[in-house]
Amino acid sequence: MIDARETVLKARRHETVIPAYNVPFLPMMKPIIQAVVDEDSIAMLQVARLEWEKFGSQSPEAVAEEYRKYADPKHTLLHLDHVPVIDEDHIEVDYLTILQRGADAGYQSIMIDASRLDLTGNIDATRKAVEIARKAGIPCEAELGAVMGHESGPAPAYEELFTTKKGFTDLDEAARFVSESGCDWLSVAVGSVHGAVSEGLKFQKKPRARLDIEHIRNLYDVTGIPLVLHGGSGIDPDYIRLGIKAGIAKINVGTEIRQAYLRALDKEPEDIPAAQEAVYNSVCEISRELLGISGTSSMLTNQSG
Known about the structure:
Elements lengths: L3 H10 L4 E5 L6 H10 L4 E6 H5 L6 H11 L5 E9 L10 H10 L4 E5 L5 H18 L3 E5 L13 H7 L6 H11 L3 E4 L24 H11 L3 E3 L7 H10 L1 E6 L1 H13 L4 H19 L6 H5 L4
Parallel strand pairs: 1-2, 1-8, 2-3, 3-4, 4-5, 5-6, 6-7, 7-8
Helix pairs in contact: 2-4, 2-12, 5-6, 6-8, 8-9, 9-10, 11-12
């Protein structure tokens, strides 16, 4: 069985990346894993709280159970994504209970998102999440900065966001945050955006995002830990490759494969196999064309690497 902490560290050392595919609907699990295995890569399967609240993944336990049916211990990991302290609807969440449920269900890494709190509050909440992770022997991801897209209502124009650097992770805050919270990986805001999740916008095309590569490089320099890019769908591939070289070791992919699944069902509502095939093809294309990670599993599992 591969280890989440060591695998992400190896990805950083080799300047490659571990994709983390979101599973908002349980039938997506099987084709994602099959694609990862067939492409001879390593990837995480993950679920965020909003995906069992607003989509069809049911619960973290249901996702873990579905994962175990198809998991390949040489190629796949299970990650609990985006457990917020304050959610996208600005409601307080019993985040520690959810994180503990994830650890108890066998997730191999967990993520707390306390980015809607001030810096001190984010550090304090993250430190509590790290304690849960340490007791379970797994790494903890945290977030600093604001990756837009999940909030209700219209988002600011993308060019405005990028030009003003609104919500971008601050360098000085990042250094303090990592030092005081003890997190293993840091999700940073450097130009990407989440896909819209409100009912009327689920098929909305994401803006063609780009990344501030110099900012990524500086964030990696001041934190010294693997960085995570959320909102990985819809980014110019050249920026993805440069971002990986600069410090990104894990990238979340959700919108692209979710929309592939839903568009197939929109055409044939009862044809789950066709929707699964669409997901499989999407993951294969992402592995080959966007991330260039096909055939990298042996490099990341090599004991001397």
